[in-house]
Amino acid sequence: MDILQTLIEVFTSYGYLAVFVVLLLCGFGVPIPEDITLVAGGIISGLGYANVHWMFAVGMVGVLLGDTFMFTIGRVMGDKVLNFRPVARILTPQRFAAVQEKFEKYGNWVLFVARFLPGLRTPIFITAGMTCRVPFWRFLLMDGFAALISVPVWVYLGYYGAANHEWLIKMIHRGQTGILIAMAVLFAVIGVIWWRRKRSQRQHMHK
Q1: Where are the domains of the chain?
Q2: What sign for the dihedral angle of Cα 38, 41, 46, 47?
Q3: Could you list the pLDDT tens digit for every one of the 207 residues in the chain?
């Protein structure tokens, strides 16, 4: 958790602006854990360096702007974005094909789930922009709904655990595991619904 301590020190010195900038960088694909960033923002609020409710607001804006930037890059540049080296490192041909397959199977729910999948978040948002099948309002709705779940969880967890780092680190690990389990269950449910719908369509076609 060295990165957590580093972020706490930086945020203590520079406050909301530092949290906002780091969250933007997370959205741009820089390998800084977004959940740890939000927790660190909550911790400095708990230590009295910021207001936790304002920190929640800053977290929401930073997260959504970073995600929107990735979506917009895909929408504006289209396939050309794959020739841009920083993006090509994140969105490899294999990843691009895998994300497209997920969209075919699960539709817009992929945008919701992406918020909880750090390794796939940026590739999914760029691909959503590239395909031009997802209107911006729908992207913002799905991503915003997911952010309203994830952002307050991490910010307020940091706030309430500011005085007890051992408990906090334990809860972070539990939270990460719990989110992954919940996402796996959600994907399974969506997969079953998709499979039943496809089977129903085939049965109607054969009648």
Answers
A1: 2-206
A2: positive
A3: 578 888 888 999 999 999 999 998 887 777 788 888 998 999 899 889 999 999 999 999 999 999 998 888 888 887 777 777 766 676 777 777 777 777 777 677 788 877 777 667 777 888 888 877 788 888 899 899 889 988 998 898 888 888 776 656 665 555 555 455 555 555 555 566 656 666 666 666 555
pTM: 0.74
For residues 57 and 24, what is the distance between their CA atoms, to the nearest angstrom?
Answer: 14
How many helices (H) does the chain have, and how many strands (E)? 9, 0
CA distances from 35 to 83, 154, 175 (A): 30, 6, 10
Angle between helices 93-106 and 165-206 (to 10 degrees): 60
